[in-house]
Amino acid sequence: MEKRAYDLFSKATKEVTIRVIPGHFATRHSHVNYCVDMTKVKSELVCAKAAAKLFCDGFMAAPVDTIITLDRMKMVGSFIAHYLSHSHINKGQNIAVISPEIQNDKLLLRDNFLPYVKNKSVMLLTASATTGKDANSVVEGIRYYGGMPVGVATVFGGNFACDVPVLKLFGVEDLPDYSSYSPVDCPLCRANVKVDAVVNSYGYSKII
pTM for the complete prediction? Predict the structure, then answer.
């Protein structure tokens, strides 16, 4: 499977790269014809810092008190907090970076995290937001807990509707034939094409 993999580089900097693998993959919500591997962005210092800088360029004018990170994006979130705390509007701000729970596709804030969201300007950072289901659910959750969502930042994103700004480093337009299907409507399944791997925020597990 890995022999099919190739790298995509950000148009803004070669330091930000993701790896894509064509095939048939099962995610939590859908079946897709590409596995988008963001391990470098999540795990490597140079790539994480460069990605954070690109996100900051798009949110430099937004007040940010707290960054909610999903999909193991806390390293990138920490760099974003550092860069934003040196920008004009957030200068000197002690920006919090939290990774709260998601249960039944809903944001769950324990009491110790509530002060970081209630009456605060909150940015959502996630690795992938293709359908927008999770991103919109978390934005709704931020409001439910009394916060003010200022935007969504995602490494790989689809063209979904959201009532706050969405900044993506890569999009489905970078993979022109990228397709996402509900499991019951997947044409690859109907054509008896085996699932290559199960994919989640930790990576992929091949199906032998």
Answer: 0.93
